[in-house]
Write a structure and sequence with these properties.
Order of helices and strands: HHHHEEHHHHEEHHH
Number of helices: 11
Helix content: 55-70%
Number of domains: 1
Largest sheet: 4 strands, antiparallel
Number of strands: 4
CATH architecture: Up-down Bundle
Strand order of the largest sheet: 1-2-3-4
Oligomer: single chain
Radius of gyration: 38 Å
CATH class: Mainly Alpha
């Protein structure tokens, strides 16, 4: 009869298992455009996170040997990336800790205590008030996850771990893009410096020719002064480019995890050709953006936390088992006569908490709404960044065509003005004016090319890292194993 009274408790316990409370996760809807405005009508589909797919060495499309050596060092030595990886490892450990709550906890105790009883409290005092108690016991405790509190906690931690893995990818992609952008900005500074140095060499020859003409009496002292002014001003501009170059070189060193003094990049002109952007950019590329994936996974984590909060409204069921041996003598401690045990479930329910559980539930729902808004905003920002850089590349290409024509005309004008000056038809001030126009047009063309490279790098970053498929990232593979 006693056995039949216990059976319904266990049947009820297992019949309630799986009654997980809280909403199951459904990915929030995001309004997306039918196509990129700047990419010839590229069609979009419902996005699915693909940030586990590696971008591959996307910077290699620039075909720069030194750049190909520098960028891989980011993944090895960059301290910001190491910090993000450490946060990911913390999240992985947190998920393992949450999963452990699904299983029983087993403990053991071995103790020896001596006590003295009070003579007044012991009416049968026989003269010996010292007592020895030896105990060897084991205990098992387990919380039945009837309402899904533990499973929802595990779900939230897994989603948080995936978000942290995406943060690692985002940190890596951001550092790589920053290094590539700084590298081409440095090459632009080099090109500007070399153009100015070419002009300095030309102006030095012009100054010497003007001095000779002045000595021969066919040029005025004002021509010599103007030639000297032009030369020294250009030398100052050339020196000024050194400030930006040094700062960019130092920034590249820090991104590779090195002190600035240990990196020296030789001066080279900006000679790389821009990679061709595909006419139709597939939607799968934007799906690889790790910041979008991280935002979506934080929505999933917040959704699971709602279930955790709602589970607090239901009773918890704990099963505990204790057993062992207890004796006043250690010699015969493990004896059948000294055994003890206890087993049974415990039901606990909070009856009054002044609205605390309701407040925590409302807080979890509000946190979910916040993450949904963040996810949608992150997605919109991703679309904006792609559109911005596509538009920039389209406009810059048109500007470069016109600026190239302007530079050719300025060079022709300079050649004509120089011949006129040598023929005595115009003053040297006219030559200086035309030379400055030609130099400024050449520097402007270089600046536009630098902006092209910057926009290309930013477009690759906005698309999640270029437009070539790759393999799974190592930390994302580990995250996937945690789900198994």
């Amino acid at each position: 009869m006693r056995h039949t009274m216990k059976t319904p408790i266990w049947l009820l316990l297992f019949s309630l298992a799986g009654c997980t409370v809280g909403p199951d996760y459904i990915k929030p809807e995001v309004d997306t455009p039918a196509a990129f405005k700047q990419a010839d009508g590229t069609q979009w589909k419902q996005a699915e996170p693909q940030d586990h797919v590696q971008r591959g060495p996307w910077w290699q499309v620039f075909n720069d040997e030194l750049l190909n050596q520098l960028v891989p060092q980011v993944e090895v030595s960059n301290q910001t990336l190491r910090a993000a990886l450490a946060r990911y490892q913390q999240a992985v450990a947190g998920t393992r800790a949450a999963r452990a709550d699904l299983f029983p906890t087993i403990g053991s105790t071995l103790s020896r205590t001596r006590s003295q009883s009070s003579q007044l409290g012991n009416r049968t005092f026989n003269g010996n008030r010292l007592n020895t108690n030896n105990t060897l016991s084991a205990n098992l405790s387990w919380e039945a996850d009837i309402w899904g509190r533990i499973s929802r906690t595990v779900e939230a931690n897994r989603a948080g771990t995936d978000a942290s893995a995406s943060d690692v990818s985002a940190a890596l992609l951001s550092a790589q893009a920053e290094l590539v952008q700084n590298y081409f900005a440095l090459r632009l500074a080099d090109s500007q410096r070399l153009v100015l140095e070419d002009s300095i060499a030309t102006y030095e020859k012009s100054l010497q020719q003007t001095r000779n003409r002045y000595a021969a009496g066919v040029a005025s002292k004002a021509d010599v002064v103007q030639a000297e002014t032009q030369l020294n001003a250009t030398r100052a501009q050339a020196l000024d480019t050194g400030i930006q170059r040094a700062q960019l070189e130092n920034a590249i060193a820090v991104l590779t995890g090195k002190p600035p003094s240990s990196l020296s990049i030789p001066v080279t002109r900006l000679t790389e050709q821009l990679p061709l952007v595909p006419v139709g950019l597939p939607s799968q590329l934007l799906e690889r953006r790790p910041d979008v994936a991280a935002a979506e996974r934080r929505v999933a984590a917040a959704n699971a936390q709602i279930g955790v909060a709602k589970a607090a409204f239901f009773p918890t069921v704990n099963l505990s088992v204790n057993g062992g041996f207890q004796s006043t003598s250690s010699a015969n401690l493990i004896d059948i006569a000294n055994r003890f045990w206890s087993v049974g479930p415990a039901l606990a329910l909070t009856l009054f908490d002044a609205g605390r559980r309701r407040a925590l539930s409302d807080q979890a729902i509000a946190a979910y709404d916040e993450q949904v808004a963040n996810y949608r905003q992150t997605t919109l920002t991703a679309f904006q960044e792609v559109e911005d850089n596509l538009a920039a590349l389209n406009v810059l290409q048109q500007e470069i065509v016109l600026q190239t024509q302007a530079l050719q005309a300025a060079r022709q004008s300079l050649e004509i003005s120089t011949n006129q000056y040598q023929a005595g038809l115009i003053s040297y001030l006219d030559v200086v004016t035309v030379a400055n126009i030609a130099l400024n047009n050449e520097r402007t063309l270089l600046t536009l090319r630098g902006q092209q490279f910057a926009a290309t790098v930013q477009l690759m970053r906005a698309l999640g890292g270029g437009w070539e498929p790759g393999t799974a990232l190592p930390h994302m593979q580990e995250s996937a194993r945690q789900k198994e």
